[in-house]
Write a structure and sequence with these properties.
InterPro entries: DUF3891 (IPR024992)
Number of domains: 1
Number of helices: 8
Protein name: DUF3891 domain-containing protein
Structural class: alpha+beta
Radius of gyration: 19 Å
Helix content: 40-55%
Strand content: 15-25%
Order of helices and strands: EEHHHEEHHHHEEEEHE
Length: 263
């Protein structure tokens, strides 16, 4: 879950809804400077599914007593977090090996971005390393299983796999910034271009309105892109987990519509 503050309240956005927004971004992706995803359907689906492991948790979120809100995705311990990711990769496998490969690869992105091995306990660091070792074995098995399929002849090279990992990482980060409610500027690093180069994409709100954003350089096919996700307006703070869950269940749904424009 992630949150967009609204005064003293917040719009709570489930991780799968945020992932849906990521998929919308990638489906709109591609022009002369930024190549579209290839293989298109599988990579777009991988972006849409990357947080599928959160489905069960989002149905019964846990309370963070320090914030008096549900835990955000950054606040859960390593044992719970790696379990959610393991479950997510297995769920994604039901859709196909290439989407599942990208969900698994996104675990490398997440733990490379948000997990600090230096500050983690010895037990948590060892747990995450075992989890990543398991994922790397799974990734190799997916690539091996698809190696004889002509559809993936150009999609399984280390360069192609890494490009697709970075594409999912880019739209994931953009979706997070949109969900959090960007009012200034965010920089998305290591975004693949149409060639082998990578660049930084800047996402900014000229007026301070998170519903109206400019993207530079422009990575989409159309001159204007609309994306959306759904959250719930969670009012107040909580000391009781049951009360928090009931408040979420009865909370007003909020559609977050964001317009992306050329600079």
């Amino acid at each position: 879950m992630l949150f967009r503050d609204v005064g003293d309240d917040a719009i709570a956005i489930p991780q799968p809804s945020h992932a849906w927004l990521s998929g919308q971004l990638l489906r709109a992706w591609g022009n002369g400077t930024f190549a579209p995803a290839t293989p298109y359907e599988e990579v777009c689906l991988g972006a849409e599914l990357h947080d599928i492991g959160w489905l069960s948790w989002e149905a019964a979120p846990t309370l963070n007593p320090q914030t008096a809100r549900p835990h955000s995705f950054q606040e859960l311990g390593a044992a719970i977090h790696t379990g959610l990711w393991t479950d997510g990769v297995q769920r994604a496998l039901a859709f196909g090996r290439y989407p599942a490969l990208l969900v698994s690869l996104h675990a490398d992105t997440i733990y490379g971005s948000f997990f600090d091995f230096a500050k983690a306990t010895t037990e948590d660091a060892a747990l995450v390393r075992r989890f990543l070792d398991d994922q790397h074995r799974f990734q190799r098995a997916c690539i091996e299983a698809l190696s004889d399929n002509p559809r993936y002849a150009t999609a399984l090279s280390p360069q192609a796999v890494e490009r697709n990992r970075l594409l999912v990482a880019a739209v994931d980060r953009m979706s997070l910034e949109i969900g959090w409610g960007l009012t200034d500027e965010a920089r998305i690093p290591n975004v693949p271009t149409a060639g082998e180069a990578r660049t930084e994409v800047r996402l900014r709100s000229p007026s301070g309105n998170p519903a109206d954003l400019v993207v530079d350089p422009w990575p989409f096919a159309a001159d204007r892109v609309e994306v959306l996700c759904e959250g719930r307006l969670l009012r107040g703070r909580f000391t009781d987990e049951g009360a928090m869950r009931r408040a979420l269940d009865s909370a007003k749904p909020v559609t977050i519509l964001t317009v992306l424009k050329r600079p």
